[in-house]
Design brief:
The complex is a heterodimer of chains A (293) and B (199). Chain A is α+β, with helices and mostly antiparallel strands and 293 residues long. Chain A is built from eight helices and twelve strands. Classes of the chains: A alpha+beta (293), B mainly alpha (199). Chain A: Its cofactor is Mo-molybdopterin.
């Protein structure tokens, strides 16, 4: 039998109307909130919110995973103007708190696999990135998107770390960015994103290692050249541009065959190609993913 | 009496990390990735101990404080405690590997794992030869053998540099002070005329 995965079914890609319906259901069945209702329709257990928000790789704050939450306490990021520019017919700016009213809210439960071989299952809220790209009308030369994160040394101590080229920068190919799975998340567990999870908005690309899902975005630029990315610049032999989840290609320093779900002690589960989102495989047809890792 | 107090203090310092680890387990404070946290805590304890072990004799010469001299004389129990935390660290690692045994041969020879493992073997040899009896038997060779602890320092530096968020500069924090102290006092005890030869 084909394993039931991913995301939620089509039906649970809630728009605001169905979210309200969900709330109604929740009221009739008090033990289930809308998030739990959503989770009931996925095959996997959600990672508890307390773990999702207390174990974070956010080098702008700290290089370990416990300290970003502590250092982010009392620090609010955003709202700010998100800029979409570059090779587009209609560049625009939009306040991050206008994104959901403008483009419509979606709920997605995604597996999230960090390159460090841990993973979680997160209920995100946000808007599909494709809607913003369509609004900007890419020119025909546009092939890639560069994502730029915030830069504010007043707010986060990690910018002192000279080893990395700040601000954080990531990139996607245009077809990857347009894929319906690609989300600009504004919240998790029904609440606005906590600072340590990338407030006020972040990218979520569930079939790629977590570092591709850049946090606290201020700018998206469409280009005709493959953008530089922070981790690729820092260690090109370890972090490629594509960074698709791939159990066959080990990280030079550790195995990628298995992963540990947050909260578990010794249990490990098999890592799946494309993190189980095999519907994206066609994007990489003809490519050698051990070379383009 | 002052001496006894210094020894109490040392014993407390040696068991404190274990007490902390036990309380974190008991209170359920290990967080989202409990095994990783245990590895960090036991590794951190070991780091402080090897740091102390390599700095103490020279610090005692430098400052000539009684409690430092007492601690420096008790290096055997510091070394054995270090070995205990290293075993805890390695034991947790092996427990964690049980869920992917088929990968173990490959994982063991990764420079990250190997550097830690070789450091552990050094600690094992030093722990096994730490008794007064062994010291007596090995005579001059005992000193030579126990200088191996200095080889563990660069191995640990490699180990720290290669972990997930590894950072050569942060790893060097553990390396520079003992080496600087060693170099400083090496020169200090020599007559001025000797230095040029060493350079």
């Amino acid at each position: 039998m084909k394993q039931k995965l991913e995301v939620t079914d089509e039906a649970i890609f809630l728009n605001r109307r169905t979210l309200i319906k969900g709330l109604g259901l929740a009221a009739a069945w008090p033990s289930l909130g809308p998030i739990e209702l959503l989770a009931k329709n996925t095959s996997e257990e959600l990672t508890p919110e307390a773990l999702v928000t207390s174990y974070n790789n956010f080098y702008e704050f700290a290089t370990d995973k416990q300290n970003p939450k502590k250092l982010a306490e009392g620090v609010s990021l955003g709202p700010w103007e998100l800029e979409v520019d570059g090779l587009v017919e209609r560049p625009f700016k939009i306040s991050t708190d206008r994104l959901v009213p403008t483009f419509g809210l979606e709920q997605r439960v995604y597996r999230f696999r960090c390159v460090e071989a841990w993973s979680m299952v997160v209920p995100w809220q946000g808007v599909p990135l494709a809607r913003l790209i369509e609004r900007a009308k890419p020119k025909t030369q546009a092939k890639y998107l560069a994502f730029i994160s915030f830069y504010d040394p007043q707010k986060a101590p990690g910018f002192q770390n000279q080893q990395y080229q700040w601000p954080y920068q990531e990139g996607l190919r245009l077809d990857e960015a347009l894929h319906p799975l690609t989300l600009l998340a504004t919240g998790l567990y029904g609440k606005p994103l906590p600072t340590q999870n990338g407030a006020p908005l972040r990218l979520v690309v569930p079939w790629k290692y977590g570092f591709k899902s850049a946090k606290s975005l201020v700018k998206i630029t469409l280009t005709d050249q493959q953008p530089k990315t922070l981790w690729n610049e820092a260690a090109p032999q370890e972090y490629g541009f594509y960074a698709n989840v791939n159990p066959q290609v080990d990280h030079p320093r550790w195995s990628q065959a298995k992963e540990k779900r947050l909260g578990s002690w010794f249990d490990k589960i098999d890592t799946l190609p494309f993190n189980g989102y095999e519907e994206v495989a066609y994007l990489y047809k003809g490519m050698d993913l051990s070379q383009d890792f | 009496m002052k001496n006894a107090l210094a020894i109490y203090g040392l014993n407390l310092a040696l068991v404190l990390p274990f007490g902390f680890i036990a309380s974190e387990i008991a209170l359920g404070h290990l967080g989202a990735n409990p095994v990783e946290r245990l590895l960090h805590l036991s590794g951190q304890a070991g780091l402080w101990l090897i740091f102390g072990l390599t700095c103490l004799p020279r610090l005692a010469i430098l400052f000539n404080w009684d409690w430092l001299k007492t601690w420096s004389k008790k290096r055997r129990r510091i070394g054995l405690s270090l070995f205990f935390y290293a075993c805890l660290h390695l034991g947790i690692f092996f427990l964690d590997q049980l869920t992917e045994l088929e990968k173990l041969p490959k994982n063991l020879v990764r420079p990250f794992t190997l550097s830690g493992l070789v450091a552990w073997v050094i600690f094992l040899v030093l722990a096994l030869t730490s008794s007064s009896w062994a010291q007596h038997k090995l005579k001059k060779n005992w000193n030579r053998l126990h200088r191996l602890v200095w080889l563990a320092l660069p191995l640990i530096w490699v180990h720290l540099t290669l972990k997930e968020e590894g950072d050569p500069w942060r790893a060097s924090f553990w390396l520079f002070p003992p080496i600087m102290l060693w170099l400083a006092l090496r020169y200090k005890t020599r007559p001025a005329g000797d230095r040029a030869v060493v350079d």
